[in-house]
Amino acid sequence: MSKFSLSVLQRRVFPFVGSDDPDIVLGATFGEDAALTRIGDEILASHVDPIVGAIGDIGRLAVHVACNDIATAGIAPRWLLLLVLVPRIEDEELLEQIMRDAAGAAREVGAGIIGGHTGYSAGLTRPLVAVTALGTASGRKPVLTGGAEIGDLVLVTKGIALEGTAILAQDFADVAREKGLSEKDLAEGRAVMAAVSVVPEALALSEQGVTAMHDVTRGGLLEALLEIAHLSKVGIEVDGNRLPIPPVVTRFAEAFPFDPLRMISSGTLAVTVPPDRADGASRALKRLGTPSAYVGRVVEGQGVRLVRDGTAARFTEIRCEEDELARLWALHPRSG
Description:
With 336 residues, the protein is α+β, with helices and mostly antiparallel strands.
């Protein structure tokens, strides 16, 4: 699965969304992770996300991906609605496993499953799980994707291409073996999925005065930074030699191959931090045991300028429709 391009969204989707309701604080906005609505004295954050690009651990992944997008606004996820579709009426055990995994993930983030829908469809070749996550601000000031300011430092947590590598290790195992990856590589790759949640670090960073946060999903870190730059009307300069790329990601990227900068990476946060808040943000992450690296700076201009090994490349075009995992599913449709 991949997204439609920004131009298609602008022509075919965004003209039909929106409302004059004064209680909509932030409605449908490209690149923003959550919608914000006012209910009395409270702000409700909401987000919905489907998962069809994974098979193993899909219930757990779907919950964490939706909750991540609430947390990037600095708001704790509290309630969940699940849509679960499996290919066949006989897939009862698959349905139960998805629900069991989703319930476990909900407990991990302190959220409750309050409803949803389950069913089957012969038009599916693998399960589809969509989760709507909701939470209230409880006095917190929401953090937006479009809040980066010139002079901010750019922070990346954990590493890049995490989710994509874990899915390749889980659902493309036979292909990975054919490409020379070992059982140890596969086990290490699957273990990366344990880091898929960003809820603790996102909430901690929101208390440190960060200006923008974005969950690194489809399109990878490069797309996340382009969206921050686009919404904030700034440019971003990145030192490619400082990007945190775990060794297991490098091995999978070389074997398949794929570009880690463009690989889906739930579990990774792209954050902009005022320089005077950088030490506090680093200490907050260290207390959680969350690795991080400062990889660049927000500057005047537009797009992303990536400098690596003395060579510079500039990216300005939003390409949310492009993702390395979607490309690999197209190349290996029988995986899983």
